[in-house]
Please model this.
Amino acid sequence: MRHFTDSKTKNKPSLNDALAGIKRPRRGEQFTPAALSKLDENLRQNGPIQTTGPAPQVPARAVRGCDGVWDLIIDTCPYCHCRHFHGGGGADQPSSYGHRNSHCGPWFDNPGYILEGEA
Ligand SMILES: [Zn+2]
Model:
């Protein structure tokens, strides 16, 4: 397990090093079965891919379902690049922005992110 003391790097080298050889999803797509196999192998050998430091701010798209409940959608997760969905409440306007745990699966360990409404 590696630790970085320089906050300016935002741990990107560690994330990219850990993901070397693993094809990350394009915007809105999910991991391929081959990439998931590599992530599983990495998890067995090294544990989850760890990112430390402050949670980044991420714009979330608010989409209201036909049941009236809002989804707050991140199209490209800063960690795994997958699309993630978070509940945004059932009021007239979406709520529940702010800090959330990421939905990256067991292969990643990170501080989550801060959902922000799109302008
Ligand atoms: Zn993710």
